[in-house]
Write a structure and sequence with these properties.
There is one protein chain. By secondary structure, the chain is mostly beta strands. The chain has a domain at 35-108 and 124-149: Thrombin, subunit H (Beta Barrel), CATH 2.40.10. 10% of the residues lie in helices and 28% in strands. It is built from 2 helices and 9 strands. It has helices at 20-24, 167-179; strands at residues 29-30, 38-40, 46-55, 67-79, 85-92, 103-106, 128-132, 135-136, 144-148. Strands 1, 2, 3, 4, 5, 6, 7, 8 and 9 form a 9-stranded mixed sheet that branches. It is globular, with a radius of gyration of 17 Å. 32% of the residues are buried. The model has no long low-confidence stretch (mean pLDDT 92).
Length: 184
């Protein structure tokens, strides 16, 4: 089922006074309104980004192991049955049910040292979440999954919710962080 706002936050309680990000070496950031996406003639002027997907697909290793997939994500805008514009990202992915809720990141990993003629791009902040696995096809061999677009839409139109960003992700982070500032 494709929808605009299939996103959530999870607040983790500190363990022995330490937050998970402190213990595990850091936190993911998040981006909105097409962070790291750009239109490219290589893909017919589609708006795309290099995406790393992380999840626990139940049909692979019984869901016991975290898997990583690297692909490109494509911004898709469609009109739903009720006439509402639906904004999603689609990726090629061999993950299955069970991977829902896993992050989709741009610029995943440690920052490289550029030693020659190269660019890290205009949106180069590392480990930035731009979606979470929301839906996918159930037929074997149709390797496509989708995520709600992080950003402004009809339900969350503001360009900023406090200092937490635009649209659906800005609003949910605003609500989470104002309710529990220590977690942010």
């Amino acid at each position: 089922m494709v929808c605009n706002n299939d996103i959530a936050t999870v607040r983790l309680a500190p363990r022995n006074g330490a937050y998970a990000g402190t213990t595990l070496g850091g936190w993911y950031g998040y981006g909105w309104n097409g962070y790291s996406f750009l239109a490219t003639p290589i893909f017919g002027n589609a708006t795309v980004a290099a995406i790393t997907q992380i999840g626990y697909p139940s049909a692979i290793d019984n869901g016991y192991l975290m898997l990583r997939g690297d692909t490109f994500g494509k911004y898709i805008a469609t009109t739903g049955a009720n006439g509402k514009q639906l904004m999603n990202i689609q990726i090629g992915s061999a993950m299955t049910g069970g991977s829902s809720g896993g992050p989709w990141l741009v610029n995943f990993g440690t920052s490289p040292v550029v030693t020659g003629s190269a660019s890290l791009g205009n949106s180069a902040v590392r480990n930035t979440v731009v979606g979470v696995t929301s839906w996918g096809y159930t037929e074997v061999g149709v390797n496509v999954q989708g995520a709600s677009w992080f950003g402004q839409n009809a339900e969350f139109p503001l360009a900023a919710y406090g200092s937490y960003g635009a649209g659906n992700i800005g609003k949910i982070m605003y609500d989470t962080c104002t309710q529990s500032p220590a977690n942010c």
